[in-house]
Design a protein that fits this description.
The complex is a heterotetramer of chains A (about 375), B (about 675), C (about 425) and D (about 150).
Chain A (H helix, E strand, L loop, with lengths): L2 E2 L3 H6 L15 H5 L11 H9 L2 H6 L2 H4 L5 H5 L6 H16 L4 H7 L1 H22 L10 H4 L2 H30 L10 H6 L1 H10 L10 H22 L1 H4 L10 H26 L10 H26 L2 H21 L8 H27 L6
Chain B lengths: L13 E6 L11 H9 L4 E7 L5 H14 L3 E6 L2 H14 L7 E5 L1 H5 L6 H21 L6 E4 L3 E5 L3 H12 L3 E5 L22 H13 L4 E4 L2 E9 L2 E8 L9 H7 L3 E3 L8 E3 L1 E2 L11 E2 L9 E3 L2 E3 L6 E7 L1 E4 L3 E3 L15 E3 H10 L8 E2 L2 E2 L2 E8 L24 H15 L4 E6 L10 H9 L3 E4 L7 E4 L8 E7 L5 E7 L1 E6 L1 E3 L3 H7 L26 E3 L9 H19 L3 E4 L4 E3 L9 H5 L6 E8 L2 E8 L9 H5 L5 E3 L4 H12 L5
Parallel strand pairs in B: 1-2, 1-3, 3-4, 6-7, 6-18, 7-8, 18-31, 20-29, 23-24, 23-29, 24-25
Antiparallel strand pairs in B: 5-32, 9-10, 10-17, 11-12, 13-14, 15-16, 19-30, 21-22, 26-27, 27-28, 33-36, 34-35
Helix pairs in contact in B: 1-5, 2-3, 5-16, 6-7, 6-13, 10-11
Chain D lengths: L11 E6 L3 H10 L8 E6 L7 H10 L3 E6 L9 H19 L6 E5 L5 H18 L2 H11 L1
Helix pairs in contact in D: 1-4, 2-3
The chains are: A mainly alpha (about 375), B alpha/beta (about 675), C alpha/beta (about 425), D alpha/beta (about 150).
Chain lengths: ~375, ~675, ~425, ~150
């Protein structure tokens, strides 16, 4: 069965980023120079070729763009300067949009108006809810838990997390469906999914593939960011009642200490990304879409506003504390819901899952080969 | 060595030199051993070896040996005599010897290169051949070159860009030129192009700047509708006969005849895409501007012009010229695929690149959409190497039995150039390019490839033995034609590309010039193109002195390369004719009057007019008839030699006695 | 005649194959030609080569007779070891100021006997062998050099005087100084040739620091019978290589090197060298990694097909990286672009980088000719008259106008001679 | 060197025209094709110069086979090829008379790029000579018969 060449895919994907893969003359330099690419998963040229020929189904099935960490080697050394790394980035955006069943992702990625609109709506919802649901504003001292009841907030967090989880998991499930298409082959047996699950945990926690780039400073920075971010996420979603207290602990108390460290980690990590995007020093920062800006900006705002709440609280400035708190919630809403499962944030899950799926695929292939080579049962 | 049958040679002092040829000979032949054996020969004064005899240092050795050792014969074993015999004659002359006291033995092309599997045998053979050379050298006599006046007049055959360039450059050196063109109009293939790489200039505008220079040059005479029908003579003094056809119409009635003519034939200028009248101009602005009658197709019926019925008449006339040198610039024709190949001639959507270029040229100005046979064109496939790079055992040879196994050199850049121009005008068209290797080799050519990529041309790579197929799309498909093939940029994926038009990037084949080849006795290569003597030593010369090659008659070339080759050909002609005199090898018949008895047997077998005659002379008081040779008329074939019952005639430098001595040497047992 | 003021019809700058051919074609028409060469001998790059494609003649079999013909032509005068300092217009002609560098050997008396060379105690890397072999500080540059005159390398000379004592004709002159020569000519041909792209241009290919990675020109010297070892061995340790790989486009078609164009000769020279190696090391495996094989010239495609038939392996894929294993064996990393794309790492004994061509010299300043962004002379009429420059009376030929193989260079050289001759005739008839 | 010269080989003389066979032999060399070393190629302008006497003498001197590689219709010499054919025909007659196998003399048109015909001629002559043996033996036998 021949594959029919379709010129439209490239035009479509061009909406997701500054790419010019048409410049590529398929020399293979990028794939061979890539420290993350190997014979089982040779990329990025294979993906670029899919774009050139319009092999949409193949690209949907491919998880290779997620295996790329934008080391930039390919782009630096490309003889035609066709920027394969940016192409991978753009394909990740496109894939995110394809995984997202709501269709919102596509709008957010391809339209600045939609992005800003979504942020405004998210902010308005939080502000309206805050206006309607906030408790009394105690002004003589800071009583945050009175202003925003910690149980209510925790419930809200949990609802938010559930919502986030629902979108994420449903998108992840679509990713799974695309990656293991029904039809031609049997999907890998469940046993392999289970035995390879450790890969998922490992890569989610360490992002160790990122470290395989020649320059691994970015990996360290990213790890710091994820650590800070992950810590905060766990604190807020699971331990809000411990974290959000009106009682002022000494500065060395874990509650404050963890909070500060995590916030600083976020500021450091996302600040690094932002500075990179502003100075455009690294390959990956040369072209920035609105989504690339929003993510670190919101992260940094989140951390700063969190620190500010703490600072105002410690300084005994109740009104500022409450307002900042609302602001903090606005940022959180924007981050989790508006650009969360539909946007860049989701790579947090797609990447480790892609590594995991890839491991499953490889194991399954070995498994299939073993079956094919097994002696036929004697009847 | 024993001398039985040979005349005893005079006291000869022979210098023998065996060349390593930079390894070409010494890799196989034990060169030192050969020299060692030569030293055993009684006539050999010195035998040496050298890494390269032809180098200045190597030649100096010979010169010095002649002077210091008093050598009077030189034998050099080296590459083929065709390459360096001339060089070494110069060396010997500088040493102070008559240049014909030299014999060249080919130890490379006819020994080391053909016996690489048998070094021992090759060494033995080298010794044998060198001994034969010495045997001949013993018998050599001093000779002088024959000096003849050379006609400062060149004939250029072909009025395409190469012919025009050559004519202009030769005339620029102050030499008369006659340019003949078979068709009624100048310009050749270049006139059929639109824009040309790497300048993007209009081909006909560029061409006309050259045509104008040529036609206004006082030393150049142009004959269109003319061809060479006969040639005799030799370098500097060729007698050529040229036959011209008439244009059929003249200035007075030309326009009226053009208007009145109704008979139409396929227009070869547009590769049959359109029709034209049998009274025609090749294109608007062509030179000469007077229309001409297409005699091949004219049905001979009268045409009514200004109320008069006129039948055009082809008044052929021939004329003779004396010419010093000839430039062959007969050009190429595009390869025409056999019917059905890639759907050519079967599917209306399949065209060759030259046809497509004409199609682009034929559009009326401002066209918003590209159409082909009335249908809009949205998707185009280009297929490279059609008629080029064929593989033995995979592709069928051409009807003449020759496989087009060469690269046609220009098609890659020409195709991409054309596609880029197309996409400038119609950016929404999708182009798919099926290639084997993209050969945009020139300085500015690669940028055409880059540009095509930037313009979203999609490249698909096939393997030479698995070329793409062009098939009609099934009923109801979105496009009329499918191009199918394996794409080796995508793991050998089977792909199909639906398109509205397929462009075949056809290669070049030489224009058939067998008549010239037969008349002039010039060689053709394995690929049918005319063959030069040596690609580096004498890249535009044929083995026939005074006949040189220009442009695509020799091999595929682009315009730049054709013009360079043509200018190079002009330089060779200038070298030959600038002095107004040529020197010929003195290899002509020579009568030994002591032996001649005036039988006239020689004259009976001689085919050259006035080369040999019987003259009356007085010998020992008696009036006798004796044969006398006129060197300028003698070709040196030797017919007369075997005819003479008294062995009284020989070809100078190539005497029967030389051969007998060489046979003696060859049959001698060599111990090594 | 005043040796500091010369007059001729034409000046040819550069004594490589193109310059020699131009000079010969003009001289054979009766014009007086002066050929200026920067190096101590004419011959250019071609005299360094082993055998040449597609005929596999030894390069010196073509070059040395041309060098000899130039030297012996009564209409040509060679100024070797000389450089053009400036060019002034002089009516329709030119006045060139040439600097004759000191050889420290008296040209008029030196016989090229090489006794000085044998006496010299100083060994220096041989520039003719691209510094792999050694040569003496005073020497005839190479065995077939033209002129056969010694040259003394003052930078490395220890002034021991042994050469001066050995010289039978007292030609060593330690006090020789540079000389200025003024040449008046009517026309000028630039034939300054090319250089190869530097071997250390690409970081991924080891920056020129890997032991057994060499460039194509060095391989030419290894293959040449006149070369430093007269056989092919690894420069790192002298081992006879069993597996040799060619990396194509190592200095061409690469935007990151600033050389986006195709250098035209590399495919053919790689194939040619591969065939020669196959001849001298029949057991060696030879691989050529390529992007496109560009065997476009007359007889080239058949040459390529012969190489395939000989068992030389052609692998489609651009080598992305070369590293080195513990035995100093180079390792290539490449994506095979074929039926099954794979990334492979293959270890070879030796790697040859098929480096490309860049101009040797940018003549825009001295000659006022237009050059392109890379420094190649740019013709205003590249198709119809490619050797013309924007300066009337100045022509350019060979690799100074762009990458070119020998066949094309020779045609271009004859074309330049043709154009220069026409120019000479036109200015004379004008007068 | 090596042992190849110890066994006696038949000797083949090739008279090849400069415009045909000799250039063809050079072409075979340029293609680096192999053939046997018992061949001696002598350049000739046109073989029409050789009389029957020349050929017979050559056989008597010990040449076992002669291939005349002329230029056929490509000859630059008018009447040369025809004259060559006449002389070779006459020689055949004489060879018959003398009891020399006429297969020892062969006339072949070889062009400048006729690599395959060139090799074919050389190989065929070798096969023929392997079959019919040395000319000296043949002439000696003739002597005995008489």
């Amino acid at each position: 069965m021949s594959t029919r060449v379709d010129p439209s895919l490239l035009q479509e994907i061009k909406k997701y980023g500054e790419i010019h893969v048409e410049d590529c003359f398929n020399c293979g330099n990028c794939t061979a120079v890539c420290p993350l690419s190997n014979s089982n998963t040779p990329f990025p040229r294979n993906n670029i070729r899919m774009l050139q020929l319009g092999m949409k189904d193949k690209l949907l099935e491919s998880i290779d763009p997620w295996l790329c960490y934008y080391c930039g080697e390919c782009t630096i050394t490309c003889p035609r300067q066709a920027d394969p790394a940016e192409a991978q980035m753009t394909m990740r955006r496109w894939l995110t949009a394809q995984y997202d069943w709501t269709g919102l992702s596509k709008k957010l990625y391809t339209s600045t108006a939609w992005s800003i609109g979504a942020l405004i709506i998210g902010a308005l919802i939080v502000i309206l809810l805050a206006l309607g649901l906030h408790g009394p504003l105690v002004t003589n001292q800071v009583e945050l838990n009175t202003f925003a009841d910690v149980h209510m907030m925790h419930t809200a967090d949990l609802i938010l997390a559930a919502l986030l989880g629902f979108f994420l998991l449903s998108n992840l499930f679509r990713m799974y469906l695309f990656t293991f298409p029904r039809g031609a082959q049997n999907p890998p047996p469940l046993s392999i999914f289970i035995t390879e699950a450790w890969q998922l945990v490992l890569h989610m926690l360490t992002q160790k593939r990122f470290g395989e780039c020649e320059d691994n400073k970015r990996w360290i920075n990213h790890l710091i960011l994820v650590f800070g971010y992950g810590t905060m996420f766990v604190l807020i979603v699971l331990f809000l009642s411990w974290f959000q207290t009106d009682e002022l602990y000494p500065i060395y108390h874990p509650q404050r200490l963890i909070g500060y460290v995590a916030a600083l980690a976020i500021i450091y990590g996302s600040g690094d990304a932002l500075i990179g995007r502003i100075t455009k020093k690294h390959q990956m920062h040369r072209y920035s879409q609105i989504s690339d800006w929003l993510f670190p900006i919101l992260l940094i705002l989140l951390a700063i506003s969190g620190l500010m709440i703490s600072a105002f609280r410690v300084s005994g400035l109740p009104i500022l504390t409450y307002y900042t708190y609302v602001g903090h919630l606005v940022v959180m809403m924007m981050l989790y819901i508006c650009i969360g499962p539909m946007g860049k944030w989701a790579h947090l899950l797609y990447r480790p899952f892609a590594v995991y799926f890839q491991a499953v695929k490889e194991k399954a292939e070995e498994h299939n080969k073993a079956i094919a080579h097994a002696p036929a049962p004697v009847s | 060595m024993t001398e039985k049958t040979n005349p005893k040679p005079e006291e000869t002092k022979i210098g023998v030199y065996v060349c390593y040829c930079g390894g070409n000979i010494s890799d196989v032949v034990d060169v030192e051993k050969v020299a060692e054996k030569m030293r055993e020969h009684p006539n050999v004064t010195i035998a040496r070896t050298d890494m390269s005899m032809c180098s200045d240092a190597g030649q100096s050795i010979v010169e010095n040996d002649i002077k210091e050792l008093g050598l009077n014969r030189v034998v050099i074993g080296a590459c083929a005599p065709s390459l360096h015999e001339h060089t070494f004659r110069g060396t010997v002359a500088r040493g102070g010897l008559n240049p014909y006291f030299f014999h060249h033995v080919g130890l490379r092309e006819q020994d080391s290169w053909v016996h690489s599997n048998n070094p021992g045998g090759a060494t033995e053979k080298a010794i044998r051949l060198m001994y034969a050379g010495i045997a001949k050298a013993n018998l050599l006599k001093p000779l002088d070159m024959i000096k003849l006046k050379a006609e400062r007049h060149a004939l250029v055959i072909g009025g395409g860009v190469a012919g025009l360039r050559a004519a202009y450059d030769i005339a620029g050196r102050g030499i008369n030129v006659t340019l003949i063109e078979k068709t009624p109009f100048l310009g050749g293939r270049m006139a059929q192009l639109e824009t040309v790489f790497p300048t993007g200039n209009n081909a006909r505008e560029d061409l006309h700047s050259l045509i104008n220079e040529v036609r206004t040059h006082p030393l150049i005479t142009i004959h269109t509708l003319s061809e060479l029908v006969n040639i005799r003579g030799y370098i500097g003094n060729y007698d050529v006969q040229i036959r011209s056809q008439s244009r059929g119409v003249s200035g007075d009635n030309a326009e009226a005849a053009l208007a009145a003519c109704t008979q139409e034939v396929p227009d070869d200028f547009n590769y049959g895409l359109t029709k034209r009248k049998v009274v025609y101009r090749a294109y608007e602005g062509c030179f000469p501007s007077t229309p001409a009658v297409d005699w091949e197709h004219y049905d001979g019926k009268p045409i009514e012009i200004d109320g008069q019925k006129v039948i055009f008449e082809n008044k052929k006339k021939t004329f003779d010229l004396r010419i010093g040198a000839i430039v062959i610039a007969t050009g190429f024709q595009p390869y025409e695929p056999p019917r059905g190949d890639y759907g050519y001639d079967e599917l209306p959507e399949v065209v060759t690149l030259p046809q497509f270029i004409r199609h682009m040229g034929l559009r009326d100005g401002n066209v918003g959409e590209l159409t082909w046979k009335g249908h809009p064109v949205r998707d185009i496939a280009a297929i490279h190497c059609v008629g080029s790079r064929h593989l033995a055992g995979v592709h069928e040879p051409q009807p003449d039995g020759i496989l087009n196994n060469y690269c046609s050199r220009v098609c890659c850049t020409a195709t991409l150039h054309q596609v880029n121009e197309l996409l400038d005008e119609y950016p929404n068209i999708n182009v798919y390019d099926f290639y084997e290797d993209i050969r945009t080799y020139g300085l500015e050519h690669e940028s055409y490839y880059t540009e095509a990529s930037k313009k979203m041309v999609r490249f698909l790579r096939f393997h030479g033995d698995q070329r793409p197929e062009v098939v009609a799309a099934p009923e109801g498909d979105t496009h009329p034609v499918l191009v199918k093939g394996k794409d080796y940029l995508t793991n050998g994926l089977e792909v199909e590309v639906p398109v509205d038009l397929v462009i075949l990037a056809v290669g070049m084949v030489p224009r058939p010039v067998d008549d010239l080849v037969d008349m002039m006795k010039i060689p053709k290569g394995d690929d049918r193109f005319l063959l030069e003597v040596h690609p580096k030593l004498r890249p535009v010369e044929t083995p026939v002195p005074g006949i040189v090659l220009a442009g695509t008659a020799q091999s595929p070339m682009n315009i730049q390369e054709s013009c360079n080759a043509a200018s190079a050909a002009a330089a060779k002609v200038a070298v030959l004719l600038a002095a107004g005199q040529v020197e010929l090898d003195p290899y002509v018949a020579n009568v030994d009057l002591d032996k001649c008895e005036g039988t006239g047997a020689c004259i009976e077998v001689c085919e050259y007019e006035d080369a040999i005659v019987l003259e009356t002379m007085t010998v020992e008081g008696k009036e006798v008839q004796r044969a006398v040779v006129t060197p300028a008329n003698c070709s040196g074939c030797g017919n007369c030699v075997s005819a003479c019952p008294h062995h009284a005639i020989d070809v100078q430098g190539w005497e029967v006695a030389h051969y007998e001595a060489m046979v003696d040497a060859i049959t001698m047992e060599v111990e090594i | 005649m005043d040796e500091n003021k010369l007059k001729a019809d034409a000046l040819v700058v550069g004594g490589g194959i193109a310059g020699m051919q131009s000079a010969l074609d003009l001289a054979d028409q009766g014009y007086q030609v002066i050929l200026v060469e920067k190096e101590p001998s004419i011959g250019g790059k071609m005299i360094m080569l082993s055998k040449v494609f597609p005929t596999l003649d030894c390069a010196s079999c073509i070059t040395t007779p041309k060098m000899s013909a130039v030297a012996n032509n009564k209409n040509i005068r060679i100024l070797s070891y000389s450089e053009i300092q400036s060019i002034q217009k002089n009516g329709s002609g030119f006045i060139a100021n040439v600097l004759k560098k000191p050889r420290f050997v008296v040209e008029e008396t030196c016989t090229g006997c090489r006794l000085c060379e044998y006496a010299c105690p100083v060994d220096i890397p041989n520039p003719f062998d691209l510094n792999i072999g050694a040569i003496r500080a005073v020497r005839v540059p190479f065995s077939t050099a033209v002129p056969q005159i010694a040259v003394l390398d003052m930078d490395n000379c220890i002034l021991c005087g042994k050469c001066a004592r050995a010289c039978p004709v007292d030609s060593i002159d330690f006090l020789q100084t540079e000389k200025e020569v003024e040449i008046e000519v009517d026309t000028l041909i630039i034939a300054t040739g090319f250089e190869t792209t530097p071997i250390d241009a690409k970081k991924e290919y080891g920056n020129g620091k890997l032991h057994n990675v060499i460039d194509g020109l060095i391989m030419e010297r290894l293959l040449a019978p006149t070369g430093p070892y007269a056989r092919v061995i690894r420069p790192g340790d002298g081992k006879e290589p069993e597996s040799i790989a060619y990396v194509q486009c190592a200095g061409s078609r690469d935007e990151t090197l600033g050389v986006p164009y195709c250098s035209r000769i590399c495919c053919m020279y790689a194939i040619k060298q591969a065939m020669l190696i196959a001849g001298s090391l029949p057991m060696a495996d030879i691989t050529i990694y390529y992007m496109d094989i560009r065997t476009f010239g007359k007889g080239y495609e058949q040459f390529y097909q012969n190489a395939q038939a000989m068992g030389i392996e052609f692998v489609k894929g651009k080598v992305a990286k070369i590293s080195e294993d513990e035995n100093q064996n180079p390792v290539v990393r490449v994506e095979l672009i074929d039926e099954n794309s794979q990334i492979i790492e293959r270890t070879h004994d030796m790697i040859v980088l098929s480096v490309g061509m860049i101009p040797k010299y940018n003549p825009s300043q001295v000659y006022g000719v237009n050059v392109d962004e890379f420094g190649f002379v740019k013709s205003p009429t590249p198709n119809l008259s490619s050797t013309k420059t924007n300066q009337p009376g100045i022509f350019a030929t060979g690799a100074s106008t762009g990458p070119m193989d020998i066949v094309d260079s020779i045609n271009s050289a004859s074309a330049a001679a043709s154009s220069a001759a026409s120019y000479l005739e036109s200015v004379r008839n004008g007068k | 060197m090596n042992e190849t010269t110890t066994t006696k080989e038949p000797k083949i003389l090739i008279l090849a025209t400069l415009s045909g066979g000799y250039a063809g032999a050079d072409y075979v060399g340029q293609q680096h094709l192999n053939y046997s070393t018992n061949t001696s190629i002598l350049p000739v302008r046109c073989p029409s110069m050789f009389s029957t006497e020349f050929y017979i003498k050559a056989f008597e001197k010990g040449i076992d086979g002669i291939i005349v590689m002329y230029s056929g219709t490509d000859s630059p010499f008018k009447g040369g090829p025809e004259r060559t054919a006449v002389m070779v025909d006459q020689t055949y007659k004489k060879m018959g008379e003398l009891g020399i196998n006429i297969k020892r003399l062969k006339l072949a048109a070889i062009c400048t790029v006729c690599k395959k015909p060139f090799l074919k001629q050389v190989n065929e002559m070798n096969e023929t000579l392997n079959e019919i043996g040395f000319v000296q033996d043949e002439l000696a036998d003739q002597g005995k018969d008489k």
